[in-house]
Amino acid sequence: MTDARANFTADEETAVRGAFADGAVPPCPRCGVPMAHKVIGGGSFGLGYQRRREWLLCPKCRRSVLFDRARGTRL
By the 8 A CB rule, do 52 and 39 touch? Predict the structure, then answer.
């Protein structure tokens, strides 16, 4: 069973991605602590595509935002 409170709202995710795109370390919309950042690579190197993803995680409440770096959109 998934707790609906464990996710950010669409507006919260948009705000986090926008702050990150502007070069800031965004605070968690729920707790206010700075979010940790991880780069995730993937895809098939030999097939001509490779995804580069950004993962922003709150170290306090464990909520996160994962999005494609090139598109800036949620996965």
Answer: yes
Whole-model pTM over 0.85: no
Length of the chain measured in residues: 75
Residue whose token pair is 């950004």: 54
- Mention every residue, 6+ apart, whose C-beta is less than 8 A from residue 56: 16, 20, 26, 35, 36, 37, 64, 65, 66
What gap in Å lies between CA 29 and CA 10, rounded to an integer? Answer: 11
Q: Whole domain around residue 37: which residue ranges?
A: 6-74
pLDDT for res 26: 94
Q: Which residues contact 22 (CB under 8 A, 6 or more apart)?
A: none
Domain membership flag for residue 1: no
> Within a domain: residue 52?
yes
- Note the pLDDT of residue 7: 87
